[in-house]
């Protein structure tokens, strides 16, 4: 279980991106974080693996205090938390295989991997991860030769290499068209069914309804909702997305 | 306030004009001279356009006859041959400064002819040049130059060399020297660029804000290296070469050192900017996997900067060939030094060869480096 307690983040610029946010994520949940642009979703997800240092508050993972972990322990924790990004964050000039293998860097022998030498086992593991997302044939291509949807699948394969217990997905489908969005989220759903906890931020409510087992909504860094997707009615929607929120979106409820 | 503005503008214009007048004076600009001294320039240009590049081996054959001056001071040639390569003067002896006709028959055809006097003590004088025709014939009005040349009854001889080019063209000595010196310059540039790369590449990470500028210590290191690069870059390689030259005595080594130091600074700065311009996304992603910091750099940063780095290195090699040419001029060895020597010795054709070599190499490096850089993306 992941327990987020009174989490606050104030950037050096003075922006308060998170204000006293608390919630729990149980193992095996598909937790979706929603909120307007700038509401603090990315900040929240990055605080969990401390890519961003929280200003205040604590995050426990099975009684392990992530917020207090020294660098070496933090790296060991991060190994078990895969992350998927809106912009895929692949090394564009490297091959797909190298991108996937690099998900394993937290585990492997630091010397050989520094020289770019990988064991046969790791390579097989990487090919299997690519097979899972259906693009094993692209292993030798340069990452930037792939389409957006394919790149995001490489991103998922890289996370799989970590053998993760938790996957953080920060708007994984925001740069993809609706059909691709479903295909990517279905991979995450599949992983979730196999026991990996998923915390995912999303923009479109129809996707939220389709995939979320639970939803947390942020507004200006404050948690304004926590519950099942179906509990978000018109009034809640307006509260989360503001009065001027598009009627189209509201109508889709 | 139109008056104030007019006054201000007038003042500014006057200042600008004054600045130009002063500049004109101090540079001793004398454009008409470009045309007055055209003759000198033309010689230089001719030499430049006829570089000393190829030579041919020359076969020299000599025929000679006895030629007493004045008549009676010594016996004349007793029997002039009537066939084979031979000289036939219109008279067999002459008074000093008398003019006579010298003919040559059946000599090497189409060859340069050198006519000279060989005195009894072995010295020679008065070399005249002419040419044989296709039949190996020449004729020339010769003046009996050596006055009272007969010594102890031994007369001077009239000697004629025919110089015939044989065999194919081959590189001239100047071309060989230019090539040797060009290699010195190119490899001096290569070595200094390589050494500078080895030093600048790791240091550049310390001067990249996205890598180093974290915490107090990081920020201090970042500013230290950044200002080091900026400071070193502001020194001119030529000035630095001169300083090193006084310290280590002139030659290729101080030039090489100067070039290396300047290149470290320049590449360090360019590299660190390349590192700063990378996409931060992959670095973030690798940090998220729990990869150790060095591996984040190896897998997240290095692949992104390699094309930029290679492109800067090649670009710098190109620049360093030019700089080391100029450094050579102040005593740093290589092609610049050779050019300097040629000019000091008034060997304009040699200098022309060197200048052509520089033009060709600089052009080739420029072309090569832009071609390679085009392919790196
Ligand atoms: N590195 C940063 N420095 C300063 N302020 C930041 C930084 N990153 C984010 N912010 C600010 O913090 C607030 C929350 O940003 P965050 O990126 O977490 O929102 P988000 O919900 O992910 O938005 P989006 O949907 O646009 O991705 C915003 O006001 C943003 O401007
Ligand atoms: Mg975001």
Describe this protein's structure.
The complex is a heterodimer of chains A (253) and B (377). The longest helix of chain A has 16 residues, at 178-193. Chain A is globular, with a radius of gyration of 18 Å. Chain A has a domain at 1-78 and 205-246: P-loop containing nucleotide triphosphate hydrolases (Rossmann fold), CATH 3.40.50. In chain A, a hairpin with a 5-residue loop joins strand 1 and strand 2. Chain A has a 6-stranded mixed β-sheet, sandwiched between helices. Chain A contains 10 helices and 10 strands. Chain A has helices at residues 41-48, 71-79, 96-101, 110-114, 120-132, 148-161, 178-193, 205-211, 234-241, 247-251; strands at 2-10, 16-25, 30-35, 56-61, 64-65, 81-85, 166-170, 197-201, 214-219, 222-227. Chain A has 253 residues and is of the alpha/beta class. Chain B is of the alpha+beta class and 377 residues long. Chain B folds into 3 domains: 2-49, no CATH class; 54-168, Immunoglobulin-like (Sandwich), CATH 2.60.40; 173-375, MetI-like fold, CATH 1.10.3720. In chain B, 60% of the residues lie in helices and 16% in strands. Chain B has 12 helices and 7 strands. Chain B has helices spanning 2-26, 31-36, 38-49, 173-206, 209-212, 215-233, 237-248, 252-276, 280-288, 293-332, 334-344, 348-375, and strands at residues 54-66, 86-89, 99-105, 112-118, 124-131, 138-143, 157-171. In chain B, a hairpin with a 5-residue loop joins strand 4 (112-118) and strand 5 (124-131). Chain B starts with a helix and ends with a helix. The interface between A and B is medium-sized, with 36 and 22 residues. The complex binds adenosine-5'-triphosphate and magnesium ion. Magnesium ion binds at residues 41-42, 170-171 of chain A.
